[in-house]
Amino acid sequence: MRELILITGTDCPLCTEAKDLIESIDLKDVVLIEKDIYTTRETHTKYWDKIPVLVMEEKDLYWPFDQQEVKELISI
């Protein structure tokens, strides 16, 4: 299974909105993994000012994104 990673933060309303949007899409052979921005220094340094962010196979999708953009990222 391929992984779609959602980089999130604590008490982040945009992250909640992004997760709800992603969960409304049929992900088929993709598993959604939430990763807190503070998990690693590298993650924090790269994304601290951009969350929520979707990462799939080294491609990043920055908020705001819509269903169509998520589907395009998944189809890569």
Explain what this protein looks like in three dimensions:
It is a single chain. The protein has one domain: Glutaredoxin (3-Layer(aba) Sandwich). It has helices at 13-23, 41-47, 67-74, and strands spanning 2-8, 30-36, 53-56, 59-62. The protein is built from three helices and four strands; from the N terminus they run βαβαββα.
> CATH first level: which class?
Alpha Beta
Report the uncertain regions: none
Number of strands: 4
> If classified by CATH, what would the architecture be?
3-Layer(aba) Sandwich
CATH superfamily: Glutaredoxin
Note the main sheet: 4 strands, mixed
Strand order of the largest sheet: 2-1-3-4
Amino-to-carboxy terminus distance: 14 Å
Mean pLDDT: 95
Taken as a percent bin, the fraction of beta residues is 25-35%
Summarize the structure.
With 76 residues, the protein is of the alpha+beta class.
Which SSEs are present, and which pair or pack?
Elements: E1 2-8, H1 13-23, E2 30-36, H2 41-47, E3 53-56, E4 59-62, H3 67-74
Parallel strand pairs: 1-2
Antiparallel strand pairs: 1-3, 3-4
